[in-house]
Amino acid sequence: MAEDKPEVLKGTLDMLILKIVALGPIHGYAISQRIQQISKEFFQVQQGSLYPALHRLENRGWLDAEWREASSGREAKFYKVTKKGRKQLEAEVLNWARLSDAVALILRTAE
Amino acid sequence: MAEDKPEVLKGTLDMLILKIVALGPIHGYAISQRIQQISKEFFQVQQGSLYPALHRLENRGWLDAEWREASSGREAKFYKVTKKGRKQLEAEVLNWARLSDAVALILRTAE
DNA sequence: TCTTGACACCTAGAACAACTAGGCATATAT
DNA sequence: ATATATGCCTAGTTGTTCTAGGTGTCAAGA
């Protein structure tokens, strides 16, 4: 038994990160905490998922990064969403809405 | 431009197949048509996604297969959901509900 | 003092799903 | 004749997520 396969994010991670960062400049570690907290612990973003995702989003021009001092007093890399990133977020939110509608259609099919 | 990346299914394919097959015995090719039709063309299940998925589900004991004559008069592989498959479907539907709730929580966060 | 835990960053490699792009074969319609 | 629809299949690529490590700082407690 114990066949748990986490892999819980299902392609939503980029969208979730964009959304969180769109709320205001924030550093990576705090992003994962925020996602976990807002989702009531449903999402637990592993660091091995988080940091590659952030670099991916930065490389695509959807996020900008800058080293600043965190509230803890230590240096951290703060991200903000670019103009391109906001358009991308919009597109992903729209696509997510369509996707979940389509899934709902199928799950509600009775015959 | 033209940066369309399909990969539209986002880990939902197994659940969708289980759901469709749970409605009654049906062969592979028809499953993809059914999914496409019910989802109003949102999902277009490529054959290169469909058949590996069916074999995956069969190997895990969630589907049973049997060659029978299709309405077209030709032989086709008909699938039905096993008892294990129904439990799996239930679990996946529940997980999907939780996932989309969690996503909604994050997308609705205003500050 | 020493060590644990939280913070904060990172990467390499494995696992896996979905895709592209091919293949085979039959039946019907043009 | 040949194109289209049906119906099955696989190999190989791509991309995301995971595990499992690594670095270093700082505060609290044993």
What is the helix tally of chain A?
4
Oligomer: homodimer
Q: What fraction of residues of chain A sit in β-strands?
A: 5-15%
The mean pLDDT of chain A is: 92
Largest sheet of chain A: 3 strands, antiparallel
Write a structural description.
2 copies of one chain form a homodimer. Chain A has 111 residues and is an alpha+beta fold. Chain A contains 4 helices and 3 strands. In chain A, α1 packs across α2, α1 packs across α3 and α1 packs across α4. The longest helix of chain A is centred in the last third of the chain and has 25 residues. Chain A is elongated and about 60 Å long. The interface between A and B is medium-sized, with 29 and 29 residues. The structure holds a DNA duplex (30 and 30 nucleotides).
Compact description:
By secondary structure, chain A is α+β, with helices and mostly antiparallel strands. Chain A has 4 helices and 3 strands; from the N terminus they run αβααββα.
Task: Spell out the key features of this protein.
3-stranded antiparallel beta sheet; 111 residues; DNA-binding; disordered N terminus; homodimer; alpha+beta; elongated; 4 helices
Element layout with pairings:
Two copies of one chain form a homodimer.
Chain A: H1 13-22, E1 26-27, H2 28-38, H3 47-59, E2 63-69, E3 75-81, H4 83-107
Antiparallel strand pairs in A: 1-3, 2-3
The structure holds a DNA duplex (30 and 30 nucleotides).
